[in-house]
Write a structure and sequence with these properties.
Blueprint: H1 2-27, H2 36-54, H3 57-71, H4 76-105, H5 112-134, H6 143-148, H7 158-170, H8 175-180, H9 184-215, H10 217-234, H11 253-274, H12 277-295
Length: about 300
Amino acid sequence: MARKTILWGGLAVFALALAVTGYALLTTGLAPLPPVPFTVWLPVGVGLLLLSLITPPARSAELEARVRHAMAPHSVERELGYLAFCLAGFILGMIGLSGLLGLLYGNMANLAAPAVRLLFLLFIPLLLVDWAQVGRAGDRPTIPRIAMAVTEPWRWLGLIAVLVGVVLLASAVDLATMIADRALPVGLLGIVVTISVPEEIFFRGMAQTRLEILVGRWSAVLLTSLFFAATYAAMGTDVDVVRGEATLLHGDLLRAIATYGVWGVFYGYLWSCYRNIWLNIILRSCVIALITIPLQHPPG
């Protein structure tokens, strides 16, 4: 009963966010946001459809059994509490440290983002919920091993959906501006190291995996995506040069759900199908790069 309530409640929140955002698009527009139907809804919709078609059900079920076996020694509820603490620390740290650096050093406020993200979304969570189990695992598989040591070829099938989604997104943005950016290699490296790796490991690898144990796959995907979107809405007025699109949200939770949350559903379903963190990092990095880098070089 609780699982169905969460599932239908999550779907209702997404439906409301999409309806409100769609109405805004039809009436006043959402400038300066990129065209949401083509940069979010179309690539995500096609990507989800492809994942449902190409994922082998039997192998995916066997992989899910391995994940549940790996999670057996974990206290899921307690670890989710740790992760909630880390997420709160990340949001408060982003707002507080950015504000402090802004007051003291002006444009140095941007330096807060990578440090706070890596600390609260990667290092502390890993110490609390994953690395603490590695030494006691013995021959039992662990989630980090499953996620990173991807040796089965079928677990790369999701790359098809990733590439199609990225191509659809690329067709809707100013790709020429991105390619012409001389700082593109450095920007991409920064995106991968300071955003994609910590956030995908935290939200999908740690939080969603544990929520799936408690509430099931789709409820966990929706819940994680809502928390993901709410996190970016909470930081909507924060300045972060490699996360430039978040400054366009202005704290609007429904808009965040209709953009970040919808992409989060793609990230979450991809993770639940293949448990291949490299696919998630590739997809997330491409999405951030294609949206943020052109925004930092507006025409004219």
